[in-house]
Specification:
By secondary structure, this protein is mostly helical. It contains ten helices and no strands.
Length: 255
């Protein structure tokens, strides 16, 4: 289904081109200008014990900002907090692509060793981080947008290396992935709000492209996602931003 770039380029070749220059003007590249979707989802039922909101819906933050922060937010060139969040987002993105064991993931869940697999795995982790971030109002929205921006900067750097012999095919690949991204994140939102069957369907469509797959692999991925979402829900956003690190659960080999 995907072009030659997928069938000939392995995830191992993606480990690890330098990511992004974070510096531009004041030390941080300006965040992407993507607008929020109007897609609205309800909160998870209480028995899930996960304070889940849509990765596209902004939830008003409950705690009032301090007077000093409110004043700074009204002065664009003094909006230090926003710059800090953007910088943290790029570091959090780097942590995913630098530290996560992609090879173990594709081997455990029988995925092809391709650029497409690298992208959808990274996309999944960005979605899980976005779910946590968007429970925090406007600050979470800044974090989500900056992480997505970091993804596309990184993608463009990687495909330049992988697609040198087929630039037109590379461009189409990236455009297809870009067009599919928001629909994928919304389908994951629907999946985590619903039962395991709906979540498994979203994974099957995105990861396996509706091809034959062992049901056990879908079950394992869904189980992993729900555990990771629950873990993230227990971590305060301020802690994530200060430490600039997230505990991503390891992929445990199962029989």
């Amino acid at each position: 289904m995907h072009n030659a770039m997928n069938s000939t380029r392995s995830i191992r070749l993606l480990m690890r081109p330098p990511l992004v220059g974070l510096t531009k003007q004041n030390g941080f590249k300006i965040c992407c200008t993507s607008k929020n979707s109007n897609f609205v989802l309800p909160i998870l039922p209480n028995n899930t014990q996960v304070n889940f909101v849509s990765s596209f819906e902004v939830k008003p933050k409950q705690n009032e900002d301090s007077l000093v922060r409110k004043i700074l937010l009204k002065i664009p060139f003094l909006n230090i907090r926003k710059m800090q969040i953007k910088a943290a987002a790029f570091i959090l993105y780097e942590q995913i692509v630098d530290d996560f064991n992609y090879v173990q993931f594709i081997e455990e869940y029988d995925l092809p060793d391709t650029f497409y697999s690298w992208f959808v795995i990274t996309e999944l982790y960005i979605w899980m981080l976005s779910v946590r971030a968007m429970a925090e109002g406007k600050e979470g929205e800044v974090l989500r947008n900056a992480v997505v921006e970091a993804l596309w900067i990184d993608v463009m750097q990687r495909v330049k290396k992988l697609g040198a012999g087929n630039p037109s095919g590379m461009k189409k690949e990236v455009m297809d992935l870009s067009e599919q991204l928001q629909a994928t994140l919304i389908s994951y939102d629907e999946g985590v709000l619903s039962d395991d069957i709906v979540m498994a369907g979203a994974i099957w469509r995105r990861f396996y492209q509706m091809q034959d797959v062992h049901v056990h692999n879908l079950e394992k991925i869904v189980k992993y996602i729900r555990k990771q979402i629950a873990l993230l829900d227990r971590v305060p956003l301020d802690q994530i931003l200060q430490e600039k690190r997230i505990l991503w659960l390891p992929i445990i080999k199962e029989p």
